[in-house]
Amino acid sequence: MEVYRKLSETYGPRNWWPGETSFEVMVGAILTQNTSWKNVEKAIERLKEKGVLNPKGIRELRKSTLSSLIRSSGYFRIKSERLKVFVDFLFDEYGGSIKRMKRERVGVLRRKLLDVKGIGPETADSILLYGLKKPVFVVDSYTKRILSRHGILSEKASYEEVQNLFMDHLPHDERLFNEYHALLVHLGKTLCKKVPRCDRCPLKGVRWEAQGVRRKELTY
DNA sequence: CACCAGGCAAGTA
DNA sequence: TACTTGCATGGT
After folding, report:
1. Which among A62, A94, A106, A171 could disulfide-bond with A100, CB atoms 3.0 to 4.6 Å apart, if both were Cys?
2. How far is the CA of A126 from the C1' of C2 (A)?
3. Measured in angstroms, what separates residue A159's CA from nucleotide B6's C1'?
4. Does domain A22-131 have CATH number 1.10.340.30?
């Protein structure tokens, strides 16, 4: 928790996830796979202009048309297929209603999402946390990198392993998980890159013991 | 020019 | 299970 407090007081509220509706957040979660958010924003904007940024709109678009609208987000052929498969799932399971989807038990919904082709653990958890406000911790490459740089975990620890490290030792609070992950991404983007800038890192000297990890002084 | 960005699935051994 | 490759645009 000391890590969270430090990041929070340094960077302040990150206001994640940008998006006017739950569905918009879910679409963003798929489009941002291995892609910069900037490129996704343009695609989201084009979908809005066309008035199709809703379950019915995506469902009724031709795949080729959808591809052209989301071109800026990269992997556009694969992602148009993934959006199609996702909205089909939404209609098959919940009649196209996000509200009904939200009523599903988290554990059940997570497993169902993981069965959807094109939705892996990070996308599923982003949909749950940022789209539906469920208390699920999202792990991404920055999270892994930061933890491994600090010697907490191996660089190739499994997704669940990293996720459990947080969820086993933090209160299951949606707002905390939201802010914590957003802060880790911000730190990753600004300082914890391939060539790290540890001299400016706000976590210099901070301990992770509140994570349930044995005391470990960070060394820079 | 190279490298990266808020991953995932499919193929191979 | 563990590794490799394809997917693609746009910014630095």
Report:
1. A94
2. 26
3. 15
4. yes
Buried b (16+ CB within 10 A) or exposed e, A18-39: ebeebbbbbbbbbbbbebeeee
Where along chain A do its domains lie?
A: 2-13+138-211, 22-131
Token pair for residue A129? 């946390």
- Tell me, in Å, how far CA of A183 is from C1' of C6? 31
Cβ–Cβ under 8 Å, residues A207 and A215: yes
A190 touches strand B (CB under 7 A): no
| pLDDT block averages, 10 residues each, chain A of length 220 | 93 95 98 98 98 98 98 98 98 98 98 98 98 98 94 91 94 98 97 88 82 41
